[in-house]
Amino acid sequence: MSKPLEGIRIIDFTHVQAGPACTQLLAWFGADVIKVERPGSGDVTRNQLRDIPDADALYFTMLNSNKKSLTLDTKKPEGKEVLEKLIRESDVLVENFGPGALDRMGFSWERLNELNPKMIVASVKGFSDGHHYDDLKVYENVAQCAGGAASTTGFWDGPPTISAAALGDSNTGMHLAIGILTALLGRDKTGKGQKVAVSMQDSVLNLCRVKLRDQQRLERVGYLEEYPQYPHGEFSDVVPRGGNAGGGGQPGWVLKCKGWETDPNAYIYFTIQGHAWEPICKALGKPEWIDDPAYKTAEARQPHIFDIFKTIEGWLADKTKFEAVDILRKFDIPCAPVLTMKELANDPSLRASGTIVEVPHKKRGSYLTVGSPIKFSDMKPEITASPLLGEHTEEVLASLGYSKQDIFNLREVKAV
Ligand code: CAO
């Protein structure tokens, strides 16, 4: 089965997480992704948080599946020459260096466009061009703070909190992938490449849009009725942290199940969907709540929503999180167990769907990694191991017309 992005050649000038997550996705869907890495060291994540001595760290292997690795010193004239050839023969260049690094290397957008007017040049930066912080280097948590996620995450009596989900890194990479695919479709119409830029701040903010909604509501009416601060607490003039409250119009909370005293993840998330009130009451054995005016409507429930949650916790006390969900699902109640990474890693459904896969690696043996979260009716992305440093240097150089002697010469000057 041929893959939709087959024939698209991508120069992957990315490192750490935001850029590699983007190019990995495109590689899964068939693009020929050539990761350009500094000879001798490569992507810094090859060495970060290693669990096996002398083998690429999982940090690297889980973000660089299905790619080729070309070592190239792009600061040396011989390396620049190779890169120029590669640029002329590629469709996309993706990079997430610190601000100005590509320009300093001699590959500004203008130069790249001159070398290959059809090429799409895609960049991740911490802040967008022209932003007053556009000179800053940025990592995940910095972006979560700058994009509004941290100020709105956590509990009201605690500090701003970072999410474990990579909202700054992988999320930005996914935005960039959408930008690249859009530019490729655009090129089909115009024949021209273009620059695609995504900032980590913008990508985080794009996911925090409901908090921007809340800021405007707060300014208009002075309170936010779905937040735990309503009606008894106080609101200032900024969107507060709402703990585990549901972000939309459906109140919800993380509730204790059997064993919570010793198991920090013996919890479920329980949502009180307005129109599901009757089945909720039936599931909980509280039919008297169905028509009780103190419970019947969302407005009536809100002032004592935490008492309601306490009652539900009483019902959950003799049920594990899995038993509870198995009962509640029969009543069509949106809920889920709080799953640990261990439970997810061993989940047979996730293995069967290809969301979590085990791949063989030349040095590590087999390792667990994420597969495509996007499912297609006509294609099942096959996940292959990340490349060793420089594993495909000769293959890529030969495809550009370099002879064995040329490659030897490049090695002599340590350009590859
Ligand atoms: N050959 C020769 N030089 C190379 C090279 C190669 N193959 N690949 C990279 N380099 C050089 C670059 O030219 C640059 O050199 P100069 O700074 O001298 O111009 C340097 O290596 C890389 O610089 P950097 O600023 O990208 O790296 P850093 O470790 O100091 O910063 C990071 C890392 C992530 C903070 C920064 O790259 C950044 O802000 N990126 C944009 C935002 C981003 O993507 N962040 C998410 C990272 S995931 O958490």
Automatic annotation (TrEMBL):
Residues bound to CoA are 15-18, 38, 72-75, 96-98, 104, 137-140
Tree of life domain? Bacteria
Q: So what EC number does this one have? A: 2.8.3.16
Q: Which Pfam families match?
A: CoA_transf_3
Q: Which SUPFAM superfamilies match?
A: CoA-transferase family III (CaiB/BaiF) (SSF89796)
Q: Which UniProt keywords apply?
A: Transferase
List residues binding substrate.
G248, G249, Q250
Where's the active site on this chain?
A: D169 (nucleophile)
Write down the top EC class of this protein: transferase
Ranges annotated as spanning the membrane = none
Task: Tell me the route in metabolism or biology where this protein functions.
Answer: Metabolic intermediate degradation; oxalate degradation; CO(2) and formate from oxalate: step 1/2
Q: Does the entry feature the keyword Chloroplast, yes or no?
A: no
One GO term in the molecular function aspect is: formyl-CoA transferase activity
The reaction(s) catalysed by this protein are:
formyl-CoA + oxalate = oxalyl-CoA + formate
Q: Which residues form a coiled coil?
A: none
Q: Which family does it belong to?
A: Belongs to the CoA-transferase III family. Frc subfamily.
Subunit architecture: Homodimer.
The free-text function statement in the UniProt record for this protein reads: Involved in the catabolism of oxalate and in the adapatation to low pH via the induction of the oxalate-dependent acid tolerance response (ATR). Catalyzes the transfer of the CoA moiety from formyl-CoA to oxalate.
Alphabetized PANTHER family for the sequence:
SUCCINATE--HYDROXYMETHYLGLUTARATE COA-TRANSFERASE
Q: What is this protein called?
A: Formyl-CoA:oxalate CoA-transferase
Organism ancestry: Bacteria, Pseudomonadati, Pseudomonadota, Betaproteobacteria, Burkholderiales
